[in-house]
Amino acid sequence: MLAIHVDNVGPESVLRFAHTPDPILRPSDVLVRNRAAGVNRTDLSLRRGAHGDADWGDSPLIGLEVAGEIVALGSDVAGWRTGDRVMAVVGGGGYAQLSRVDHRMLMPIPAGMDDIQAAAIPEVFITAHQALCHLGELRQDETLLLHAAASGVGTAAVQLARAIGARVIATSSASKHARLMELGVSHCIDRGAEDFEPVVASLTESRGVDVILDFVGASYVERNIRSLAYGGRLVQAGLMDGNASQPLPMSRLVSRHLKIMGTVMKSRPLAEKCAMTRRFADRWLAEFATGRLQPVVDAVFPITQAEAAHQRVASNAGFGKVVLSIA
Description:
Layout: E1 2-6, E2 15-19, E3 29-39, H1 41-48, E4 65-73, E5 85-89, E6 98-102, E7 107-108, H2 115-119, H3 122-135, E8 143-146, H4 152-164, E9 167-172, H5 177-183, E10 187-190, H6 196-203, E11 209-214, H7 221-226, E12 228-236, H8 250-255, E13 259-262, H9 270-284, H10 286-290, E14 297-302, H11 306-315, E15 321-325
Helix pairs in contact: 3-4, 3-9
């Protein structure tokens, strides 16, 4: 098969499209002919060497989510047939014509949805559900502060929060505010011109928000803690600012009974990934067929232009997911 290789860590130019052996099925795997693959910020970090070992369990190749159809079944697989259209988070190997996927990670592509749209669902919606519903326990009539709201996970989180019946306050660049409001955000904060802490205080009459979902980290930590209501929950799902340690207002953390949780999917054991997938699918998958939830696709590139796709993600200019089309 053909696939994108990362022979040496570095800039986008290290991405190379070349032949590689087909994946070898294990008993619990299916072989998926990929028609599309989502591009995630983690892919950029992996390409730069930030994660060390590139193998996340299924392949040393880059790419963490795919959509396509099943072309072969392992001996222990039940409930799926060749020809089924599926989407999934994978343990590497998404930027390729074929991927092996543990069958417990599979989800059927919703009726009426094409492969490009489907590839924009698994990673971001499962991550958003894990952060908001499973960890953050966001409830109806609560308020969510969502940072980097125009990202892939951000646009998924907006939709899940609104479906729950929560109010969403979002930070993003001003150029993206109108589209975020269309998705269901109640109030947008210009991350380039406004300090979110006093705005949140004003919007909540100094009460604070119930849940914060943050992908930035370092420079936001202290202000996040001060922006939480009594019993509030901060879910950290990314570190765009890097790993620099920041002071925590510990007295506020203790006196207001706050919770801080971290989450990432790629490095979890397979059993936990499967559980995350099932929780999301059981609660939300049917909502895509009704149109209540929608994947947000920013741009589509052929797999031979993976370099341009990475540049698009790195630019922070997009809204939603960048997807690779695979012939």
